[in-house]
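Supplementary Text 2. Reproducibility record for the structural model of the 131-residue chain.

All settings were left at their defaults, and a single model was retained for analysis rather than an ensemble. We include the record here because the model underlies the residue-level annotations in Supplementary Table 4.
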Amino acid sequence: MKILKRENWWIWLLLFLFSSGSSTLVLGALLDVYDKNAWYAKWQYWLIGILLFVFPAVIMFSIFHIEILCKTAARLHVGGHELYLSPYIWILLLIFPVFGWIFLFVMLFYLEIMTLVMLYKGAGEEYIATH
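Retained model, structure tokens:
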């Protein structure tokens, strides 16, 4: 868990840049945000998604990534958790063309950057100290 210390925030920045944002999945594992009873833990769903010409599996992975990103940001006390933890906000952003899609990418960018900022401020250390 030493990787969550404040002085290692730059490692997370490099991991984010070189992994195209998928380092959030590892950060989520370190912060214990995964739920063994959630939809993404059931292999049957993934098998059905892959068997249906891969496109549903890509959508499922995108939703999985957004969900873990939101839970990780909430665990690190990123501001605005009332908005980004609500599934209705994400659905609204997808429904409205152009402006909704722009705000969707802005929200994703905000969550990724603010997660790194909170690691820089020591939110990971607070989690280690309390859990």
